[in-house]
Amino acid sequence: MDSLIKTVNLRKAYRVGNEKVVALDCINLDIPKGQVCCILGTSGSGKSTLLNQLAGLEKPTRGEVYIKGEKISSMSEKQLAHFRQMNVGFVFQSYNLLQGMSAIDNVAMPLNFRGVSKSKREKAAKTMLKKVGLEKRMTHKPSEMSGGQQQRVGIARAFVTKPDVVFADEPTGNLDTRTTREVMDLFLEFARQEGITIVLVSHDQNLAKYADRIVTLVDGEIISDKINNSLYDVTNELKEQMKPLVENKSYKELSSLILKTTSDYTEGVAVQALEYNFTSLENPREFMEELIAIIDNETEKALFTRIGRETGAIPKETDSKRLAENKSNKEKIVKKTKKEKKQGFFDKIKGKKIDTVDKKADKKADKKEDKAQTPKNNNDTASDDKKDDKKDNIEKSNTEGNEE
Ligand SMILES: Nc1ncnc2c1ncn2[C@@H]1O[C@H](COP(=O)(O)OP(=O)(O)OP(=O)(O)O)[C@@H](O)[C@H]1O
Ligand SMILES: [Mg+2]
């Protein structure tokens, strides 16, 4: 691969009073085009300082930085500003969106600097916002959006110009596990589809797992530089590996594959790939029972048992009994489509935490529902999830879990 970013003996020292702080020293990095590179390190290790030198936001004390063969460390501020506008995108931990502007205007702005006409800017911004799943929030201002949504706008803005490189400093620092995964998937999608290089800075080992390469900094020096099999690619490969097993009803092999994935990577990867294939399972109950039977680890057993129950793949004994005693109530149960039920489950387990208060609240709600036995037919997946009707059983969830 061609080199996109290169540093030679990079050093950055700050003077604080009479003291000299060496934030970076002897940094020799060569980042090829299209690579997703994570700079990993604890607080104060020099990550942001390195990113700032690479992006031309700060001048190094010594050494050189090249992007696309151009020596940006020797450019004037004016040249640098122009170079950044034409070649670079940024994503920040605190989103840095312009508060008075809509999502569209925020995303369209970098195109303004490139002299793109208003109609083309808006069209491109709309396309990007759709890609990041914000088609319904286009006219919203940052204050009218969640953190995850604001960061999606930030990502759309960084990628709208199809820059050569996007620099991101702790882009998921303010986000929860589920949103972090979604945001990282977006980064990787753009990197893979458009061949855009990404340099991302984080202290979080889990985030680093999405990168193609992990460069670890300690006290301003690179102490390790490793190639990594990105979790994004691993998940996509797993989705494809699962397909024929699902189609051929090879549930034993499918279960072994899931088990191997949870031990090699994370439960989150296995669940994400399973989610993708779940609606194609001809006999989800047989599969879930097969899977649970071969799991030794109690936590994993609990997780997949819950998935089984929440999808309706595995019936709850008590529910079966109750329904058998009261057959007439069965007719009142609102039937959901197979797809709706399964989607509801995965929506539900994504990114939620076990919460004993919620458990109690759910149990109370369940009792109320038992009395009424007339489920509401609305679009709220959280309440819909409590009324699954798989195989004459009402499935109610009273636990929620972390996906990773
Ligand atoms: N403008 C500055 N003046 C003086 N010292 C600085 C300056 N910027 C950074 N430093 C010092 O350089 C070192 C590296 O800082 P840097 O911000 O790069 O760390 P970091 O790895 O990004 O940490 P964090 O994870 O907390 O953001 C720290 O010791 C910091 O105090
Ligand atoms: Mg920092």
Tally of domains: 2
**Beta-strand residue percentage:** 15-25%
The count of helical stretches stands at 16
Approximate helicity band: 40-55%
Cα(first) to Cα(last) distance is 33 Å
CATH superfamily membership of the largest domain, which one?
P-loop containing nucleotide triphosphate hydrolases
SSE string, helices as H and strands as E: EEEEHEEHEHHHEHEHEEHHHHHHHHH
What is the C-alpha radius of gyration, as a whole number of Å? 25 Å
Mean pLDDT: 83
Q: How many strands?
A: 11
Structural class: alpha/beta
The shape is: globular
Strand order of the largest sheet: 7-8-9-4-10-11
**Poorly predicted ranges:** 327-344, 349-363, 369-404
At CATH's second level, what is the architecture of the largest domain?
3-Layer(aba) Sandwich
The biggest beta sheet reads: 6 strands, mixed
CATH class identity of the largest domain: Alpha Beta
CATH topology of the largest domain: Rossmann fold
Q: Are any ligands bound, and if so which?
A: adenosine-5'-triphosphate, magnesium ion
